[in-house]
Write a structure and sequence with these properties.
With 358 residues, the chain is an alpha+beta fold. The protein has two domains: 167 residues, 2-Layer Sandwich (Uridine Diphospho-n-acetylenolpyruvylglucosamine Reductase, domain 3); 140 residues. The chain contains ten helices and 17 strands. A five-stranded antiparallel β-sheet has the order 3-4-8-6-7. Strands 11-12-10-13 form a four-stranded antiparallel β-sheet, with helices on both faces.
């Protein structure tokens, strides 16, 4: 056991004994996301480094406090990448924070989400016990993928210690094309193209422009670009990076609040609610809206999805976490509470970050 693990175990056991909350934190790059920040900080930044990486196996294992930029640099040196393009939202973002928030970038529409590439996890539970789930190989059939519950759990199910990911080769070539059209035409175009053998790795509509990214080998990308037409974007990578990191003008400021909606890709534009950016080929909508949480969530449910209040300033007198995440159905919520009781019986880990009573 490392010094960090022993010190963390002592703090976890003390917190459990005294019923004192702990706030698991890496660099704090995503402190804005989720509910109230409560409890004494348990910092993971000293628990960093690559545990194992064999490029030929397409698997990397990392300590949870490893800065994301160091992970990406190590992979790039071998011509590989984290395919789900996790957002940083800050220079010191850690791989543990990426898993805790469960967020994925523009390429999610083509390859899948962070959860899909997580192969295993080592965590510390609320008793101070170290638990290992999954493995360090792509073909792991050890049973129920318990470790994937950590993706998006906001640190409420344990302290992440080590994480294993499947990685992929960096695309040989990428081209971004842009088309002028309204939101309805963009949704129709994105869904029509999704049914064709085209190497589209990202699709976004904002401010009257549809951006499509093509990724793959040189010949396939060039052929697809000729077929699609449109105007070439000289520095397409900068656009997709700005989208991933919320640095486009659409994301500037906190008023009105920024909402994230996960809906079916064919859902109609939601312009009646506010200003909209369409991502993931139509399946992810970023919404700037002053409408009530009830109205926004009703629209999301109508579109077979759900809504999250992503960035905002809580109204005066209201707790920050009162309506951040949409509460699941009662049966699913009961299951989540049982999982919380199993992994964190004293409720010390990040209380209130996911739901006010969780």
């Amino acid at each position: 056991m490392t010094d960090f693990i022993e010190l963390a175990r002592e703090r976890v056991r003390q917190a459990t004994a005294s019923q004192s909350p702990l706030r698991i934190r890496g660099s704090g790059s995503k402190d804005f996301y989720g509910g109230e920040l409560t409890g004494e900080v348990l910092d993971t930044l000293t628990h960093r480094g690559v545990v194992a990486y064999d490029p030929s196996e397409l698997v990397i294992t990392l300590k949870a406090g490893t800065p994301l930029h160091e992970v990406e640099a190590a992979l790039a040196a071998s011509g590989q990448c984290l395919p789900f393009e996790p957002p940083h939202f800050g220079a010191g973002a850690t791989i543990g924070g990426c898993v805790g928030t469960g967020l994925s970038g523009p390429r999610r529409m083509q390859v899948g989400s962070l959860r899909d590439f997580l192969l295993g996890a080592t965590i510390m539970d609320g008793r101070g016990d170290v638990l290992r789930f999954g493995g360090q190989v792509m073909k792991n059939v050890a049973g129920f993928d318990t470790f994937r519950l950590q993706a998006g759990a906001m640190g409420t199910l344990g302290l992440l210690l080590e994480l294993s990911f499947k990685v992929l080769p960096t695309p040989e070539a990428e081209i971004t094309r842009v088309f002028a059209c309204d939101a309805a035409a963009a949704i129709e175009t994105m869904n029509r193209h999704a049914g064709l053998p085209l190497p589209i790795s990202a699709a976004c509509h904002v401010d009257g422009l549809l951006h499509l990214r093509l990724s793959g080998n040189q010949a396939a990308v060039r052929t697809a670009a000729t077929r699609l037409g449109g105007d070439d974007v000289a520095d397409g990578s900068s656009f997709w990076r700005a989208l991933r990191e919320h640095q486009l003008p659409f994301f500037a400021g906190d008023d009105p609040p920024l909402w994230r909606l996960a809906v079916k890709s064919t859902a109609a534009p939601m312009k009646a609610l506010g200003r909209e950016l369409i991502d993931w080929g139509g399946a992810q909508r970023w919404l700037r809206s002053a409408e009530s949480a009830e109205a926004i969530r009703a629209q999301a449910v109508q579109a077979s999805g759900h809504a999250t209040r992503f960035r905002s300033i809580a109204p005066l007198g209201e707790p920050r976490g009162s309506d951040i995440f949409q509460r699941p159905a009662p049966a699913l919520l009961a299951l989540q509470h049982r999982l919380k009781q199993t992994f964190d019986p004293a409720g010390i880990f990040n209380p209130g970050r996911l739901f006010p009573d969780f």
